[in-house]
Amino acid sequence: YKVLRLILGDQLNLQHSWFLEDSPSTLHVIMEVKSETDYVWHHIQKACAFFAAMENFAETLNSKGFETLYLHLDHENNKQNFSENIQDLIEKFDIEEFQYQLPDEYRLDQEMNALCTKLKISWRCFDSEHFYTSRNELTDFFSGKKEFVMESFYRAMRLKHRILIQNDDKPDGEKWNFDVENRKKLPKNHKPNFPLLFNNDVRKQHGRLLAGKIQTIGNIHPENLQWPINRSQSLELLSYFCKNCLPLFGTFQDAMHTDEWSLYHSRLSFSMNTKLISPKEVVDTALAYWKKDKSIGLNQVEGFIRQILGWREYMRGIYWMKMPEFEKLNYFNHQTKLPEWYWTGNTKMNCLKHSISQSLNFAYAHHIQRLMITGNFALLAGINPDDVDFWYLGIYIDAIQWVEITNTRGMSQYADGGIIGTKPYAATANYIHKMSNYCDDCGYNRQDKTGENSCPFNSLYWDFHDRHRAKLQHNPRLSMVYRIWDKMDAELKASVLQRANYYLENLDTL
Ligand code: FAD
Ligand code: SF4
């Protein structure tokens, strides 16, 4: 071979220009390495899904005539990290040029840069050809600006890509956002469609992880992993979503329910984050369904597209604008350890019990569970963002640092001091009750903020705002919060803070 091409585990993009024409003197390599399995405790379903998707991709490439070497975790020559394995292969096959695609993670980008400066042969780096935006497009878009508002970026993306835009450049439906029609609680007796699940046998991959003594979290039935692990399953999930979930996606986007773990969400994040399918394919397919199916409202399709064309591209852009400083940010100087029950779901707080247990069972929770239940609690309780990141980076099927850390440290923990969000996403039981049925059979009382059984979110909410007054009181979006707090009876305030203090000192027992 003359050329060695590295394909990372989240670069399973069959549409990439690498695969448009034959490349007879090229060897492709995909590797399972401990430097990837060990940087965090991954959910066992996530580790298996990655390995299975990677292995599947290698088989597909080989079947199409692209020579691909798949290095198993337990292979005797596996050096367990990319750089050493690549150097080994270059020597073994007398390679003349090394090629790779831009990694999405800062850590791997650094590793590739360091490797290439060491190489004695030539090397080339290619775009991953996955996103709507290039790596630094958002940095350029906001250059000279102090604030990086998602909405302005999203509107520019809509215009640039002519998505839901009329000939006169106005948005379809004359509005950019239909949130007032969306975000409803699930009505009693409303049963969402059953999620489409797959039956992938990942016993071999699971066995290698066990034999390699890789530390993982969560539960699995390795004989039937339910996540899509190849392109055709991902496309099947996409059509299923558009037919069965898109018609009510926006309406119930923020709803939570004890009997449901994914409601009308697409569960396409793993397929997209591994690049089995592209965001453009997802957006175009949703648009095509909306055009032909009158039962899909504009509010549903706009709400869905905003998540992908807006939030997903925005988070990636912010990541590349702000790394590596971003991973150290701790605006509130939060230092508390993550309570033990985040790893087990063993808490009396019903909302957290459900959100965490389903995360352990399915490697999945939807956005509002991540933001307003597990994230909200960690924020109010003052948990160290390093701990919070460690948990989120491992537990979800779609967790990759560029999209995990921006959502966790930024959006949910406000540890970036407001780069991503305009105020902290903090809420009391009022919000949780409004959007879910969790409070109905919880041992805590959602309406109480001082008693022994009072919902911890209530006192912790006020305690959080009181504790961080100096940093938050001048935020115009919080003036109402401080007005209410300041008007509260002094005795009541004291008992709220006392209750919060008790909870903070006994987090592990909640
Ligand atoms: P849907 O609700 O069906 O949305 C469709 C798609 O939109 C998603 O697949 C995703 O690609 C995109 N999307 C939606 N919201 C966001 C967002 N805020 N940022 C970026 N993309 C978004 N997403 C990840 O992919 N990986 C993560 O590690 C991750 N960690 C998160 C941590 C926290 C604390 C929070 C609040 C959110 C996190 N998200 C993460 C964003 C979002 O919650 C998930 O993308 C979504 O829940 C995935 O499920 P879905 O595919 O069913 O999404
Ligand atoms: Fe969660 Fe409080 Fe509601 Fe219980 S009462 S489910 S702890 S919000």
From TrEMBL:
Gene3D superfamilies: 1.25.40.80, Deoxyribodipyrimidine photolyase-related, DNA Cyclobutane Dipyrimidine Photolyase, subunit A, domain 3, HUPs. It comes from the Bacteria. InterPro entries: Crypto/Photolyase_FAD-like_sf, PhrB-like, Rossmann-like_a/b/a_fold, UV-DNA_repair_photolyase. This is Cryptochrome/photolyase family protein. It comes from Pedobacter fastidiosus.
